[in-house]
Amino acid sequence: MSKPAGTLPDPSAAFSDPDAPLLEAVGRGDRDAARQLMARRLPRLLAIAQRLLSDPVEAEDIAQETFIRVWKAAARWRSGEAKVETWMSRIAINLCYDRLRRRREILTDALPERVDGAPGPETALSLGQAARQVHSAVASLPDRQRLALELCHFQEMTNIDAAEAMDISVEALESLLARGRRRLRAVLTGQEDALLAGFGGDLPVHEGTRG
């Protein structure tokens, strides 16, 4: 979300953003800074792409394409417009949405493998029964609800940062979170405590949002 024309960047934003100096160096062609930025932000980008696409290979493709775009656009980035991690997350999200749209466009009589977003057999075998049920419940959510939960609960973004990454208002994000939680409660009715204990307690299913 860009600032109005003529608005000066907030100096404190760059100071509070640990990635800003790295991205500025990337904009000057510093490959070592690019490697550092990649090492720092790769896990989050992979997690976002994996949550949306349910395919580790595609998730790696998305992360690679995100860094290529960051490299090309770094010189045009201006501190104070958005946190670097938020900007990079938004690039990855848009790339994932593009892939999801292409998947739907090529649907024929044969459905693409794992189009419903459920964990694959290798993942399923590595998870306990309780964790599989929670993962399946999250995977059954619509794309935007699943992404909102991923950003706010699994990636621990604030509502403001998550909304910016998704390019929506905070109110819209909170609506997605509320609907996602309601749907999860409906799927996990009567077994939330046991399932979430098996999952590690990472995913709240009660009302309320992160600030």
Automatic annotation (TrEMBL):
Q: Which UniProt keywords apply?
A: DNA-binding, Sigma factor, Transcription, Transcription regulation
Official protein name in the record: RNA polymerase sigma factor
Family annotation (InterPro entries): RNA_pol_sigma-70-like (IPR039425), RNA_pol_sigma-70_dom (IPR014284), RNA_pol_sigma70_r2 (IPR007627), RNA_pol_sigma70_r4_t2 (IPR013249), RNA_pol_sigma_r2 (IPR013325), RNA_pol_sigma_r3/r4-like (IPR013324), WH-like_DNA-bd_sf (IPR036388)
User: Which parts of the sequence belong to the RNA polymerase sigma factor 70 region 4 type domain?
Assistant: 132-184
Disordered, as annotated region: 1-20
* Organism per entry: Hyphobacterium vulgare
Upper lineage: Bacteria, Pseudomonadati, Pseudomonadota, Alphaproteobacteria, Maricaulales
Output the Gene3D superfamilies linked to this UniProt entry: 1.10.1740.10, Winged helix-like DNA-binding domain superfamily/Winged helix DNA-binding domain (1.10.10.10)
The superkingdom listed in its UniProt entry is: Bacteria
